C-alpha cells in the first residue's frame, strides 16, 4: 500500500515514516501543502495522512483541491485542536477520518488499516479468500487454519491482490502501490514476491491462487467474501 | 442616573409657560407706561390747544362753549377741560365736566407759567396735564391754570384690550412653541432612538452592525460603534487562530513524545509506563484548557445560529466516522426555527460530544431532538446504552473522568459540554430513563432565539 504522509514536523514525520515503513507501507513524504496537493494529484496513493497545520497550503485546502480534482483515495487527518468544528470542516472538505494529537502509533495504524479496508469494500478486518483467512488488522494469514509466515512486503502484495480479486493487476500498478517514489521501477522484485507467495500458498501448484496474465499482470483467483 | 433626553425636553417644555408669563408681564408693564406717556402727551397737546383758544379781554378770559374734540362736549365722557382762577376756583369747564366734582380736585399748579405739568390725581382717578398761563405782561396780571383731565378708566380699558390681545397672542405662541418643541424633539431624538433600536437588535442578534445613514453628529458615534463591534469580532477570530496555533505548537511535541514512548514501551519498563501516564495527564490538561479557552461564551452582539444545520453537519460527520461500527437507528427531530443565541462552534462542540457519546454507548438506537421552549432551546440526546447512574452524574461532568472504558476517548467530552453550557448560563440535566430509552438521556438548555424561517424539519436516519 502506498501512502502519502503530509507532515512538516521533522521528528513526528520520522516517527510515522519509521512505523509505516516497518509495517511494509510505501511512504512518500510532503513537507508542505503545495507539494502535497501536487503529489496527490500525480500519484495513485492508497491513502494519505495529512496534518492540518502544514505550511504554505493548509491541510484542509489540500484535501479540497484533491477532491475537486477527483482524487479519491481516503484521507486521514491529524489535528491538534480536536474541536468538533475542526473535525466537521475536515470531514466536509473530503477527509475520511481524523486523529487528534497526541496519538498512539498503534491507534494511527488501526485507523489507517480500517480506512484502507473500508475503501476496498471490506466491512470486517477478517477476510475469507477460499482456504485463506486474512486478518487485515494483525496483517497475518492462515491457510486452512494454519498460520503462514509472510514478510511485510509479501503480505502487502497479497493484500493488494485480494482487494482486487478477480481483476487483472499490472506489474506497474503493483509497483506504484507497493513502493515509494524512489523505488527502482525496472527491478524484478515484484516477480520474486509473487513467486514466493505462490510457493507459500500453493506448495504443490494445484490450487493456483495467483495467475500470470501474459501482457496484463497478475490476478488473484480464489473467491473473496467481502462481508462476514 | 442622568435624565433621559425626552425628560430633558419635557422639563424644558414645563419651563416654557414661566418664560411666557415673564414675557407677558414685561410687555404688560411696558404697554402701561407707553399708554400713560401717549395719553399725557395727548392731554398736554389739548392744554396747548385750549391755551390757543383762550382770549383775554377787559372782562377777563373768554373760551368757547364747545371744543373741537366731541368728547369735551359730551357729559361724563371722561375727558374734561377746565380753566381755573389763580386762587383755584373754576373759571371755565367743558360740557363734559357736568356732574363731576371738579372743585375737589387739587389743581396741578406749576410754579412758572408756561411749564407743563403732568401726572395722576391723588386718588389716581384722573390723569391730568396742566399749565399756568399769563395773558398780560403786567406784573399784577392774573395767572390762569389750564387743565385737561382724563378718567383713568379710559386708560384701563385700553390696557385691558391690550392685555386680552396679549394673552391671546401668548397662548397662540405657547401652542405653536409646544408644537415646535414636539417636532424639534422628534427630529432630534429620532436618530438617537433609531441608534438605540439598532443596538437593541444587535444585542438580540437580529443584525450585525449599526447602519450608517445618520446625521453627521451621530454617524461619528455609529461609525465608532461599528469599529468596536468589528474589532471585537476580529479580536475573537485572532484569539481563536492563536489558540489553534498554540494547540498545534503544544500537541505536535506531545505527539512526538508519545510516538517515542510507544517505541520505547516495547521494553515495558516502569519508567515508560509512568511517562505515558504523565503524558496522558498533560495532554488532558492541555486539551481541556484549550477547549475551555476557545469557548466564546455569552457575550454582547450575538447573532442566533440555526441549530438544525449544525445537527445535520455533525450527523453527516458521524455517519462518515461511524458507518463501519454497529448498526444504530438514528432519529433526528430538530425544528427548523430553533436558533442558538451563541457561537456556532460552541453548539457544534456540545452537539458533537453528546451525539458521539450516545453512538459510542448505544446498543441499537440514538435519538436527537431540539425545540424552542419559553425559557430557551432544549436539546436532548438519548440512547439505549447502559446509561449514567444518577449518583455518577456529577462525576461524569468532571474533566478526565470516564465511567466506561469500553471506547476510546480522553474522557473530557462531557466536562467540556458542561463547561460550555455553563458559560452560556445554561443547564445540563440527566433525565430519568424510560423503557424506550433506557440509556443516557441528557437534556441541555441554552439561550435561544427563533430563526426567521418558521418551517420545521424532522428526519430519521439509520447507521
Description:
The complex is a heterodimer of chains A (228) and B (463). By secondary structure, chain A is of the alpha/beta class. Chain A is built from eight helices and twelve strands. Chain A has helices at residues 10-22, 33-42, 59-68, 84-93, 105-119, 152-163, 171-178, 189-201, and strands spanning 2-6, 26-30, 47-51, 75-79, 97-100, 126-129, 132-135, 140-143, 146-148, 210-213, 217-220, 224-225. In chain A, α1 (10-22) links the parallel β1 (2-6) and β2 (26-30). In chain A, α2 (33-42) runs parallel beside α3 and α6 (152-163) crosses α8 (189-201). Chain B has eight helices and 15 strands. Chain B is of the alpha+beta class and 463 residues long. Chains A and B meet through α1, α4, β5 and α5 of A and α3, α4, α5 and α6 of B.
Feature tags:
heterodimer; A: 228 residues; alpha/beta; five-stranded parallel β-sheet; 21% strand; globular; B: 463 residues; alpha+beta
Oligomer: heterodimer
Number of helices of chain B: 8
Helical residue percent of chain A? 25-40%
What's the total helix number of chain A? 8
Distance between the termini of chain B: 60 Å
Q: Please outline the major beta sheet of chain A.
A: 5 strands, parallel
* Strand count of chain B: 15
**Beta-strand percentage of chain B?**
15-25%
The separation of the N and C termini of chain A measures: 23 Å
Largest interface comes to: A-B, 34 and 38 residues
Summarize the helix and strand pattern of chain B as letters: HEEEEEEEHHHEHEEHEEHHEEE
Helix content of chain B: 40-55%
Strand order of the largest sheet of chain A: 2-1-3-4-5
Given as residue ranges, the uncertain stretches of chain A (5+ residues, pLDDT < 50) are none
